[in-house]
């Protein structure tokens, strides 16, 4: 490792294990003042574990951390703050009923005691310096996701942090909000701060960072200057082999109406309206994308189609591809809807809490979906076992065997089992929500190609995704939802990210182009 003259943080031979799992092995890298360093790596490559050691959440088993050339012992988040290190986590830790200012000063002892007006003035000064748009008196529960993130960033700046670590900061932002965040980070860089971004979005790495450090399976692979690299080289460093980054989008062949949703309205348990007059058509042999800020009603819409969410009003018609018969799914139970071939693969944040049983192995989890069709008292294990083996091979699931309990698989591998199980059921309508959430690039492309194969087989595919670049590359049409309403329908081949971003933040129904 070469000596760095202006290194804010230098890691030397850091190793961290959890039981038999080696999360980081002999990692050495450094972050300079006045630079943005991206830490890039697939799922489970040890990115977050490494940053958690810098921010005092974990303590390394071996190795040293140097701050400004002097060895530092960081045994708690308080130690990290004393070294002016601030980490902005993916999941915000804010008190909803407090204002921005109250959240920022919470637990921070200032000279001269607590003075809300003085604190608010200081927050405004920080906001002006870096270009934040934040009302210090606004309550957190009234804020958008990006405003909450601003509060988290200002919170660490207020405490004097000049080394900032951001974990997947753009996961829940629109393109416009992402651009705004990047402008702020560039201003911080000009101000001499050291900034680390954990990510797996290659185009963001290339547009924002000065250097990129790549981790693979817990080991440090290398650091490259962003200006001298490209997506293909970074992918190869991440994955260890060349990966084709092309999603092949075929033209829809002989598309026919498979699902027609008309004027659907839903309320949640508290009586709040979550879907407002939603109408659209999903056709066989095409991929219909759904875009929207998290929590805009995507989940409820798919659950309504699958019979898991009660409708207040509206109809959902399904056209059987073999008989051509029309059925109103409102009259059917979730089980009847599944048996008709309408399948929902919803990848939640808690992958084990929904859809899979952690203590059961992969074969048994396959049987959860297929045992109902067995007539005998003794459920046949062979077909689910063959199916489990097929999914493991086709999706490259990393597991010792089909008999391994699902809870012992990494999140990304659990996810492949979830998605593979629904695809293996030969559906006529496949609803895949966030199927690549948090997956590494290799696995993501495997799943995109599986969805494309379903499309070519005449399935009506509905794909809910977070990455607009992927939606634009994969989908034939993209429907945008904002606050429970459809704000637009665009052509996946001609639409732009900006156009979709604007529709995502719109609240009234927009033009729809079928």
From TrEMBL:
Entries under SUPFAM superfamilies matching the protein: P-loop containing nucleoside triphosphate hydrolases
Pfam families: ABC_tran
Signal peptide positions on this chain: none
Residue span(s) of domain ABC transporter: 9-242, 259-508
Lipid bilayer topology: Peripheral membrane protein
InterPro entries tied to this protein: AAA+_ATPase (IPR003593), ABC_carbohydrate_import_ATPase (IPR050107), ABC_transporter-like_ATP-bd (IPR003439), P-loop_NTPase (IPR027417)
Subcellular location: Cell membrane
SMART domains reported in the protein's UniProt record: AAA
Keyword DNA-binding listed: no
Annotated CDD domains: ABC_Carb_Monos_I, ABC_Carb_Monos_II
Keyword Ribosomal protein in record: no
One Gene Ontology cellular component annotation held by this UniProt entry: plasma membrane
GO function term, MF aspect, one: ATP hydrolysis activity
Keyword annotations of the record: ATP-binding, Cell membrane, Membrane, Nucleotide-binding, Repeat, Translocase, Transport
Protein name: Nucleoside ABC transporter ATP-binding protein
Source organism: Frisingicoccus caecimuris
């Amino acid at each position: 490792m070469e000596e760095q003259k202006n290194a804010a943080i230098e890691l030397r031979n850091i190793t961290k294990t959890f039981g038999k799992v080696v999360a980081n092995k002999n990692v050495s890298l450094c972050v300079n003042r006045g630079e943005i360093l991206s830490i890039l790596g697939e799922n489970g490559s040890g990115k977050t574990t490494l940053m958690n050691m810098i921010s005092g959440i974990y303590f390394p088993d071996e190795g040293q951390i140097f701050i400004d050339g002097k060895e530092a012992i960081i045994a708690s988040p308080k130690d990290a703050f004393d070294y002016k290190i601030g980490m902005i986590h993916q999941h915000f830790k804010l008190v909803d009923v407090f204002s921005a200012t109250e959240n920022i000063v919470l637990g921070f002892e200032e000279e001269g005691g607590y003075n809300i007006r003085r604190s608010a003035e200081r927050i405004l000064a920080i906001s002006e310096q870096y270009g934040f748009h934040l009302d210090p008196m606004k309550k957190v529960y009234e804020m958008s996701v990006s405003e909450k993130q601003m509060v988290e960033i200002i919170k660490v700046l207020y405490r004097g942090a000049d080394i900032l670590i951001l974990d997947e900061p753009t996961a829940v932002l629109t393109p416009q909000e992402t651009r705004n965040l990047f402008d702020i980070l560039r201003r911080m860089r000009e101000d001499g701060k050291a900034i680390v971004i954990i990510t797996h979005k290659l185009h963001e790495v290339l547009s924002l960072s000065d250097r990129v450090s790549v981790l693979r399976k817990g080991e440090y692979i290398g650091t490259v200057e962003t200006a001298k690299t490209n997506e293909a080289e970074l992918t190869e460093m991440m994955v260890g082999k060349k990966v084709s980054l092309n999603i092949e989008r075929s033209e829809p062949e002989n598309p026919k109406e498979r699902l027609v949703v008309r004027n659907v309205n839903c309320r949640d348990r508290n009586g709040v309206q979550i879907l407002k007059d939603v109408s659209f058509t999903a056709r066989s042999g095409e991929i219909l994308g759904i875009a929207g800020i998290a929590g805009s009603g995507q989940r409820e819409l798919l659950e309504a189609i699958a019979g898991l969410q009660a409708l207040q009003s509206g109809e959902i018609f399904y056209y059987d591809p073999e008989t051509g018969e029309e059925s109103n799914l409102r009259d059917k139970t979730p089980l009847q809807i599944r048996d008709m071939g309408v399948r929902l693969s919803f990848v939640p944040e808690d992958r084990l809490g929904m859809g899979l049983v952690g203590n059961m192995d992969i074969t048994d989890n396959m049987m959860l979906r297929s045992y109902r069709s067995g007539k005998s008292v003794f459920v046949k294990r062979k077909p689910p076992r063959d199916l489990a083996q097929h999914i493991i091979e086709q999706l490259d699931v990393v597991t010792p065997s089909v008999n391994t309990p699902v809870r012992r698989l990494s999140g990304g591998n659990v996810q492949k089992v979830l998605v593979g199980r629904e695809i293996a059921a030969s559906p006529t309508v496949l609803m895949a929500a966030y199927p690549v959430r948090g997956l590494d690039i290799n696995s993501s492309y495997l799943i995109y190609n599986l969805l494309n194969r379903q499309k070519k087989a005449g399935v009506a595919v509905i794909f809910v995704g977070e990455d607009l670049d992927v939606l634009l590359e994969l989908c034939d049409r993209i429907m945008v939802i904002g606050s429970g309403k459809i704000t637009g329908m665009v052509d996946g081949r001609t639409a732009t990210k900006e156009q979709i971003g604007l529709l995502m933040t719109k609240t009234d129904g927009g033009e729809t182009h079928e």
